[in-house]
Specification:
Blueprint: H1 4-19, H2 27-39, E1 47-53, E2 58-64, E3 73-77, H3 91-101, E4 104-108, H4 120-132, E5 143-148, H5 150-164, E6 172-176, H6 188-191, H7 204-212, E7 235-240, H8 246-258, E8 263-268, H9 283-301
Parallel strand pairs: 3-4, 3-5, 5-6, 6-7, 7-8
Antiparallel strand pairs: 1-2, 2-4
């Protein structure tokens, strides 16, 4: 059953989308609106943030009061279509995940398109991961990579890049509504177009073009749906049933499972794209973040778990 809070939030998002100007927004207005919307949400208590240079990439530590920083590290990539967002916009979500998992987090402020198109974001993701598991002294098996929307796709692309380079990968990946198919071939782009309160399917190619900047959309490092996940770590993928990008999650889970990966998929009825951002406000978001925290804590507590990587 869909909660009253989720139904109310969906109505608010639909109303805001209907009232939005029909003219294509500028990159600057996209970023300002996105930041204003997310930073207006009430903070999740207990998080302590500090800026850090992650091997030349701007990033932010998030520590949670009472949490052992050695227990595990979440390497987080924010969403925003590769053109907007920052660690600041996702602080409350990252803090909530860390509280549930008992982890600290490194949130990466990767370069944004269109000023910095592919492969800039992936280069920054790789640099941050290598810094975290090198100079920062965190063992790969104590790291879970995570992200929402484009950040979820970036986390998946990072895993593919590490596999291709035969480097030790993280212990797992937590992906929220990951954007994995920038080529836009999923049937849900049409089947969910009339119910998605947040994303217009016809706007997806515009943002994809900003990021890919002429690069092949079928390249697995651009669209990780098309990658080879043999040897990849376990994945927890969460999505909402209303979103036009639903098939990006469903098909990624199927592809990873076909490659022998422990890929768990959970789809919430009546939920929109990255509904977890409403943690503390919507019961479904609380449930999803709690599930993720439990999954990640269990993943790192299993001494028999194999080290990911080829």
């Amino acid at each position: 059953m869909v909660s009253r809070q989720m139904t109310h939030m969906t109505h608010l998002l639909r109303a805001a989308r209907s009232a939005a100007p029909t003219v294509e927004p500028t990159v600057e207005s996209r970023r300002a609106g996105f930041a204003a919307m997310l930073t207006a949400l009430p903070p999740v208590p207990g998080g302590i943030t500090s800026a850090v240079d992650a091997g030349g990439v701007a990033a932010e530590w998030t520590d949670v009061e009472g949490v052992d920083p050695q227990a595990g590290t979440l390497l987080y990539f924010h969403g925003g279509g590769y053109v907007q967002g920052s660690p600041t916009t996702h602080r409350r979500l990252v803090t909530a995940i860390c509280r549930e998992a008992g982890f600290r987090a490194l949130s990466v402020d990767y370069r944004l398109a269109p000023e910095n198109p592919f492969p800039a974001a992936l280069e920054d993701a790789l640099t941050a991961y290598r810094w975290l598991t090198g100079p920062a002294g965190v063992e790969p098996q104590r790291v879970v990579v995570a992200g929402d929307s484009a950040g979820g796709g970036l986390a998946a692309a990072l895993i593919l890049a590490l596999l291709a380079a035969d480097e030790a990968g993280p212990a797992g990946a937590y992906l929220m509504s990951p954007w994995t198919d920038l080529a836009g071939t999923g049937a849900s782009l049409l089947s969910r177009a009339s119910v998605d309160p947040l994303i217009a399917g016809d706007g997806v190619p515009i943002v994809a073009g900003m990021y890919a900047a002429g690069h092949a959309l079928s390249d697995p490092l651009v669209s990780p749906l098309y990658g080879d996940y043999a040897g990849a770590p376990p994945m927890l993928i969460q999505a909402g049933d209303l979103e036009v990008l639903l098939d990006d999650s469903v098909r990624l889970a199927e592809r990873a499972a076909a490659a022998g990966v422990d890929a768990q998929l959970r789809v919430w009825p009546g939920a929109f794209h990255v509904f977890q951002i409403m943690v503390g406000l919507v019961p479904e978001a609380d449930e999803a973040v709690e599930q993720a925290g439990t999954w990640m804590a269990a993943l790192l507590s299993d001494p028999a778990a194999p080290t990911p990587g080829r």
